[in-house]
Amino acid sequence: MPVPQGPPLPRPYPHHNDIGVERMIKRWWRRLLKVVLWGVAALVCLEVLCFLIVVLSTYYLYGQFWEGEAVRYDPYALYLTGAGVRPTANNPASPDPNTHRHIWMMGGSTVRGVTDFDERTIPSYLARMLNQEEPRLPAVVWNFGVDGFNSLMEAKYLQKLLIEKQPSPAAIIFYDGANDCTYFAQYRTPDAHHGYRQVRALIESYHGSFFGLLKPLNAALYASYTRDFYDKVRQGVIPIEEGDRVLAEFVQSAVRRYDYLHRLAEGFGARFLLVWQPMWWVEDGRVDEGVKKQEKEYMIIGKHFSLIHNFRVTYRALSGELRRKPYFVDFQNILCTRTEPTYQSDGIHLTDAGRELVARHLARRLRQERRP
């Protein structure tokens, strides 16, 4: 006779399945949190590593941890050198407004002068040659060079000067080439200039996402050293092709800008000259073998990097289009006759001898025109 079955006894742990699921969820959350923390730590380490690479490479190239000089905000030009306009030596103490014509020189650090001596900049050498050497061409030369400026920034600065400064110039000289090539190679856009990514991030990131509400943090992320390092790697490693569409757009944008500046200068009764600066890396003239060998020994950038290729491609694309313009002055090979080193170790900035030689060629050009 079957034994009657009673109701099943309750389990000692009625929710043991729920407890197991809860433990599993906690375990997965801990793992996820660990992955997130490791990811954040990896990003922080990457940012620190890129920071060290960028800062130490800047120190290696320029002997200081910061790029250029201290700057201040300017509503026209975005920024200007904190120390102000660099004095030009050899200008007349009391210029005669009827005979002394004002010459404005615009450019980057090559115009401002990588030297501790005001009298050894290109504008100072030019002022000495025009005012003290025969045939004299009395002039007041202004050094409006700003570290890091390319033609885009110089155009904005010129607008400010034409509005605020008197008397108006008789000649406006843009000394360009290096910074235009540098920033295009970094950012690969016709709008490239010093601080391009940082400024764009500060302005555009606000509406870029919900995190844009955290403006300082979001702008810092968009302008991080990791991105800066990538831009510098792209400048020196990823080659620019001669038929590149963005390069063509950049060239046309620069040509239109210079054409506009030419017309603007004429509107003020001034002569506009675009001096295409010499660089060690783009020379194709014959140079004394002893001098060339001596310079090779201290050049810090090897030819195996795409940086040199990118310089040459961009430099020649620009000069090829600008060469037929009436305001274009080609100084690409003017230093090939040198009998001593004229370039500093980056192949762009010049020694005292190089700056003096550039000024001599420029003075000769101004005398030929007789109406700077």
Overview of the molecule:
- With 372 residues, this protein is α/β, with parallel strands linked by helices.
- The chain has one domain (88-369): SGNH hydrolase (Rossmann fold).
- 49% of the residues lie in helices and 10% in strands.
- It has helices at 16-62, 109-112, 122-132, 151-164, 178-187, 196-204, 215-222, 225-237, 245-267, 289-296, 306-322, 352-369; strands spanning 71-74, 78-81, 101-107, 139-145, 171-176, 271-276, 328-330.
- The chain has a five-stranded parallel β-sheet with strand order 4-3-5-6-7, with helices on both faces. The chain has a two-stranded antiparallel ribbon with strand order 1-2.
- Strand 1 (71-74) and strand 2 (78-81) form a beta hairpin.
- Helix 3 (122-132) packs across helix 12 (352-369) and helix 9 (245-267) crosses helix 11.
- The longest helix has 47 residues, at 16-62.
- It is elongated and about 135 Å long.
Features:
two-stranded antiparallel sheet; alpha/beta; 12 helices; 5-stranded parallel beta sheet
What's this model, at a glance?
With 372 residues, the chain is an alpha/beta fold. It is built from twelve helices and seven strands. α1 crosses α8, α5 crosses α8 and α5 crosses α11.
Order of helices and strands: HEEEHHEHEHHHHHEHHEH
CATH topology: Rossmann fold
What fraction strand?
5-15%
* Helical proportion, percent range: 40-55%
Global morphology: elongated
What is the top-level CATH class?
Alpha Beta
Number of domains: 1
SS element count, helices: 12
User: What's the arrangement of strands in the largest beta sheet?
Assistant: 4-3-5-6-7
- Write the CATH homologous superfamily: SGNH hydrolase
End-to-end Cα distance: 128 Å
